[in-house]
C-alpha cells in the first residue's frame, strides 16, 4: 500500500510531467511558422535523351526522341520532365533543387483545348534550409487561361510533412525559347 509521501511524490511527478509536456508543445507552436511562401524559377529545355533537354514528349502523338517541338502533340501525349529549380531566371542562378514528374495532354483537342495535367515533386537541395525536403505539385495547367496558372500542393516530405496549399506558375520567357523559364510562387501552410 502506498504511503502518504509516496502518493504525494507520484502526484507531484504527474503534475510536473504534464507541465513540461505543455511547455514543449508551446515551444513548438512558437518556433514553427504556420505558413511559408516560396518563389523560384523552373528552367526547361525541350528535347529527349542524348540532348540537354529537361522535358521530353516520351509517348503519344507528336512524340519522338529528341523532338524539341510540342507543336505536333495531341490528346494522350505523355511528357516526362526533370528540370532544375533556380533562385533566378539566368542559367547561372543558384540551383535550389529540381522538379521531376509527368505531364499528360488529357483534353481531346490537345494543348489548345485546356491544357496539360501535371504531377510532379519539387525536391529542394542543400543550398536551401529545406535540404532533401519536397512538395508534391499537380493539377490541370490550362495554357489558354491568362497566367498565373494555379496548381495544387498536395503535401510534402521532410520539413514539409503535413503541409499543403497551392502554387502559381507563369512564363517568364517565350514558350519556344531554347531556355524556357517559369516562375513558381508557392503558398503552403500546416
Ligand atoms: C504569403 O502570401 C500570402 C498571400 O499573398 C500573404 O497573405 C501572407 O502574408 C504571406 N505569408 C508570408 C509568411 O509571407
Ligand atoms: C517533331 O516536331 C515537329 C514540329 O516541329 C513535327 O512536325 C514532327 O512531326 C515531330 N516529329 C514526330 C516524329 O512526331
Ligand atoms: C549570370 O548570367 C547573366 C546573364 O546571362 C550575366 O549577366 C551575369 O553576369 C552572370 N553572373 C555570373 C555570376 O556569372
Ligand atoms: C543535406 O542533407 C544531407 C543528408 O540528408 C546531409 O548529409 C547534408 O549535410 C545536408 N546539407 C546541408 C547543407 O545541410
Ligand atoms: C551539397 O550537395 C552537393 C551535390 O550533391 C555536394 O557536392 C555538396 O558537397 C553538398 N554541400 C554540403 C554543404 O553538404
Ligand atoms: C544545349 O546544349 C547545346 C549543345 O551543348 C548548346 O548549344 C545549347 O546552348 C544548350 N541549350 C541550352 C538551352 O542550354
UniProtKB/TrEMBL annotation:
Location within or outside the cell: Secreted, Extracellular space, Apoplast
Segment forming the signal sequence: 1-27
Matching Pfam families: Dirigent (PF03018)
GO cellular component: apoplast
GO BP annotation list: phenylpropanoid biosynthetic process
Keywords from the named record: Apoplast, Secreted, Signal
Major place of residence: secreted
UniProt keyword Secreted, yes or no: yes
Record InterPro entries: Allene_oxi_cyc_Dirigent (IPR044859), Dirigent (IPR004265)
Function: Dirigent proteins impart stereoselectivity on the phenoxy radical-coupling reaction, yielding optically active lignans from two molecules of coniferyl alcohol in the biosynthesis of lignans, flavonolignans, and alkaloids and thus plays a central role in plant secondary metabolism.
Assembly, per entry: Homodimer.
UniProt record similarity statement: Belongs to the plant dirigent protein family.
Record PANTHER family: NUCLEOPORIN-RELATED (PTHR21495)
Name recorded for this polypeptide: Dirigent protein
Organism: Ceratodon purpureus (Fire moss)
